[in-house]
Amino acid sequence: MNENIVSATFPILNMACAACSAAVEQTLRGEKGVVEATVNLAAAQAYVQYDKRITSPRKLAKAVKAAGFVMVESSEDNTEVVAGYHRERARRWRIRTIGSMIFFIPLMVLSMLMPDIAYLHYILWALATPVLFVFGIDFYKGAWKQAIHGRANMDTLVAVSTSVAYLFSVFNTLFPDFWLQRGLEAHVYFEASAGIIAFVSIGKMLEERAKDNTTTAITKLMGLQPRDVTRIADNGDMQVVPISTVVEGDSLMARSGERIALDGVVYSGESYVDESMLTGEHMPVKKQDGSAVYAGTLNGKGVLCYKVVKTGNSTLLSQIIHFVQEAQGSKAPVQRLVDKVASVFVPVVFIIAVVAFVVWLLCGGEDAFLHALLAFVTILVIACPCALGLATPTAITVAMGKAAQKGILIKSAEALENACRVTAVVLDKTGTITQGAPAVVHTHWCEEALAKQVLYDIETRSEHPLALAVVALLDGRTAGEITQFETLPGYGVTACIGLDRYYIGNSALLTNHNIAMPDELTRLSQSWTHEASTVVWVAAADRVLALLAIADPLKATSEQAVNRLQQAGLKVYMLTGDNQATAEAIARKVGVKNVIAGMLPEQKALFVKQLQQNGEVVAMIGDGINDSAALAQADISIAMGHGSDIAMDVAAMTIISDDLNRIQQAIHLSQQTTVTIRQNLFWAFIYNVIGIPIAAGVLYPCCGFLLNPMIASAAMAMSSVCVVSNSLRLNRKK
Question: Sheet holding 285-287: strands in order across?
Fold first, then answer.
């Protein structure tokens, strides 16, 4: 991407429904320099890509303000800003709900149980007025802001419907003779207008609480980083300082039970660190001199001193939060259809309401005007763009947070939605199924003490990659003096320790120097070779001292993960640039039936393309630069978090830990999320499809039923709450 193109997520405040989010999105996209903009109603955030040479957050915020909304210019710590906004909104709506109910309840009691008391209409008028114009004033302010910009939203529906009912009731209170002279009763609907405000306020309060819960996972992640840290000066003095003052290269201390403040490398101390909030792995990881530590992880009982290598937004924790926020701001494919519907929803509702009013006025008989007015008000009240607008983003927001807690980073809503369609999973071998680094997997000691000392003395001088695995096995020893060290390409190494010469290498090395290899060791060597291990012989001039098998070991969860994928009905393939024998040996261990060896990077991409041409929806899992082409080709690309940065940049998902089971979990979460979105959209659409005709009075000719506007307002409020609550159920699903 062009280095001048900046991506950022900004909180957007004062959005009431899908029409509002559509208006903000349209405003941002219309600004010069904006490449892309998407607005998430549930998360109250806008994800914007813009050219920093042309525009800036301040200009964007100014444009959003002109459209009648508020954009917070700072893109840092915005999840806490949004969470605080939702909490404050929930508090305000709670106050307004309580206030409106204090007036509405006696209003209802009087109108239903004491219809004949003197000056009843004036009393009802007095009780309804503060409900509308004190506790419900935000609806009218919101409607006015939209009206001056030539738009309409949910506030418009509420404001118009309650105003019509209220003003009609005021007219009938002041001029009852207008109707009495025409043989009609002067009805008032103060209880309906006040009830609409009261019930919608309850719905708003519950909705804000639920929205706050959708961002809980990310808020928890953001709360993992301590605000103050213990910094160690060059002279050894320790001082507690704000984390904002720490720079790369500083030395910090993490005491027992404290969280690691920033990414760094341990230089003193030893402890076990709980990294579960980053990786999803609950087994503490041992940290000692040279170990990497990450911001937000929890130190165990030991004390660790570490050098800071990353600060601010460059830490792994900050990158995770950034990824998830971007993903929550993105749109699932199904949301594009919903946006189109939402953009015309309010105008269409007004048209339906006016048509219903005219039809009732022409065909309603004696009470034509009253029925026409009731139908008009009820249609405006019951129509709910909120439920429609919240259906997809709430499910996406909750799912992204849940995935992050499991150590799965999903970069876009599109990836989350499409993962459930996967039919074939392609796994890279090295670094994905295996650990990606050689290690000693088997040992056979003939003379253990001597062999270990010989190995350590000689292999510490060797630059061969396999020598590192041997040194790691024997870590902690002290190397002795050696002489006449010599590398024998294709065979191994030889050196003298004191007066004795020793050999480390393959069987051919021993054969060339006439060192006898016992039959039982030869058979053991052959069996290890069959398992795709490299066999290392350790010998003195006249005898074998030890036999080692070095291999790229399987990850602990590889076999279980492959079995789970296959049990889920997915076709599993393993691709590798390694030789056929090694590939087949690894495949046998993990249970993969489809193995393709000796593949170059471009061949991996072609193989994925061939599967797609055969009708498969392909998920590619890899960790290296050589996998990036195949990852880019796949329908769903998943990178292992300990792999290359290029692979992670290309991939749509990243598994932070080494647990391959997360792949199946990501696919399963996608399935759950897709089902939830469909459920939400079904209920949101069906609610309006059924509710609006009933409000218009279609049942009146057959059974004399007309929906009360007050009941309609309660139903409208609960529709949004139901959609958000259904999305929150994702958190409880396994």
Answer: 285-287, 271-274, 298-299
Domains in the chain with CATH codes: 5-72 (3.30.70.100), 83-216+324-398+673-732 (no CATH), 226-314 (2.70.150.10), 408-436+556-656 (3.40.50.1000), 439-551 (3.40.1110.10)
In angstroms, the Cα distances linking 16 to 21, 79, 187, 387, 726 are: 8, 19, 32, 11, 19
Share of the chain above pLDDT 90, in %: 16
Q: Are the beta carbons of 35 and 113 closer than 8 angstroms?
A: no
- pLDDT tens digits along 305-349: 999 998 877 787 777 666 666 655 555 566 666 666 666 777 888
How many angstroms separate the CA atoms of 490 and 578, rounded? 18
Return d(Cα 114, Cα 187) in angstroms, integer: 15
Distance of alpha carbon 204 from alpha carbon 93, whole angstroms: 7
Q: Residue 689 phi/psi, 5° resolution?
A: -60, -40
Q: Exposed (0-12), middle (13-18) or buried (19+): which is 171, by Cβ within 10 Å? A: middle
Residues 6+ apart with CB under 8 A from 437: 469, 552
- Interhelix angle 661-696/558-567, rounded to 10 degrees, is 40
User: Would you call 428 a catalytic residue per the annotation?
Assistant: yes
Count of other CB atoms within 10 angstroms of residue 38: 22
User: In whole angstroms, what is the distance from residue 371 CA to residue 384 CA?
Assistant: 22
- pLDDT value, residue 573: 94
Sign of CA dihedral 262, 264, 270, 275: positive
The Cβ of residue 247 has, within 10 Å, a number of other Cβ atoms equal to 9
* Residue 112 φ then ψ, to 5°: -95, -35
| Contact in structure between 43 and 328 (CB atoms under 8 Å) | yes
φ and ψ at residue 55, rounded to 5 degrees: -135, 180
CA distances from 277 to 232, 280, 296, 400, 432 (A): 27, 6, 8, 14, 21
Out of 428, 552, 627, 635, pick the active-site residue.
428
Q: Using alpha carbons only, what angle is made at residue 229 by residues 224 and 234, rounded to the nearest 5 degrees?
A: 145
Sheet holding 5-13, edge to edge: 34-40, 45-51, 5-13, 70-71
* H-helix or E-strand spanning residue 11: strand 5-13
Q: What is the structure's pLDDT at 696?
A: 85
Predicted local distance difference test score (pLDDT) of residue 392: 75
Q: Which pLDDT score, from 0 to 100, does residue 328 have?
A: 56
> What is the average pLDDT across 39-57?
84
CA nearest to 29, candidates 3, 47, 41: 47
Beta strand 292-293 pairing with 408-410? unpaired
Its pTM stands at 0.63
| Distance (Å, whole) CA 665 – CA 490 | 44
CA distances from 38 to 87, 218, 331, 503 (A): 23, 19, 7, 65
Interior angle at CA 525, CA 520 and CA 530, nearest 5: 130
Instruction: Reduce the secondary structure of 682-696 to three states and give it as a string.
Output: HHHHHHHHHHHHHHH
* Per-residue three-class SS string for 244-266: HHCCCCCEEEECCCCECCCEEEE
The runs of H, that is alpha helices, within 531-579 are 558-567
pLDDT band at 385 (very low <50, low <70, confident <90, very high): low
| Distance, first Cα to last Cα, the chain | 37
